[in-house]
Design goal:
The complex is a heterodimer of chains A (148) and B (72). Chain A has four helices and nine strands; from the N terminus they run H-H-H-E-E-E-E-E-H-E-E-E-E. Chain A has 148 residues and is α+β, with helices and mostly antiparallel strands. Chain A folds into two domains: 54 residues; 69 residues, Super Roll (Bactericidal permeability-increasing protein, domain 1). In chain A, a hairpin with a 2-residue loop joins strand 7 and strand 8. Chain B is mainly α and 72 residues long. Chain B has a domain of 48 residues. In chain B, 44% of the residues lie in helices and 10% in strands. At the A-B interface, helix 1, helix 4, strand 7, strand 8 and strand 9 of A face strand 1, helix 1, strand 2 and helix 2 of B.
Amino acid sequence: MAVPTDTEVRLQLYRDFIESGRPPSISRVAGLMGAPLEAVRAAFERLAAGKAIVLQPTSREVLMANPLSAVPSPFLVRTGGRAFFGSCVWDGLGIIAMLQAGGTLETSCSCCGEAMSIDVRDGEPQPVEGVIHFAIPARRWWENIVFT
Amino acid sequence: MLLFRGEEHIDRWCSQWDQPRGAILTIEQAWRLAEAWYGSKMTQDWRRASLEETESLLEGLGLRGPFWRLRP
C-alpha cells in the first residue's frame, strides 16, 4: 500500500464528506485511498497540527473539516440538494463559498431565537436583516477553536 | 461568530453572558471573509495562509484595528 501525501488525504476527506454528506472516519478514508490506516491517522494528526482540520479530543476522528462540522450545530447549510453543518455563521457561509454552488444558511438569532436565514445566489448574499458578532479577537481564535 | 437580528440583540446577548462587545460585521462583510478564507479549501494548492497573508486579507476587507490584529 502506498502512503498518501497529506494533501491527498485532505482532498479525499473533503471530497467524501461533500459527496456522502457525512464526515468520513479515518478507516473510511484509508479504505477509499487503499492506504494504510496508521498512515492516514498520522496524516489527520499532521493536518490538525497545521490547523487545516480539527480532531475530536478522544477518538481523534474529524470534528471540523473547516468550514464543515462533523457534529450537528445551529448552523445548517442547504446546497445542491445536500445539507451540512457549519461550526458558526462564518463557517456556514464558508461552506457555500467553498462549494461555489449557492445555498441557504438556516440558523436563528443567538439572542432571541427568532429563525433567520441567509440566501446566497450567484455569488452574492441576498439582502436580509442581520449582523454578525465576533466575540473573540482574531489573535485568540485558535486558543480554543471550539469555543471560537 | 454568531448571527443576530440587530445590534440591540448583540448588546443584550453580551450583557446576558457577561461578554465584552467584540466586532460587528455586516452579512456582506462576513460573506467576503468566508469567500477569502474558504474559497480554495478544496483545491490541490490550498495551504494555510501565513500571518502576513492573513493580515493582508483582513486589511483588504477593511477589518482593521486592535480586534483584528494578529500579533500581541
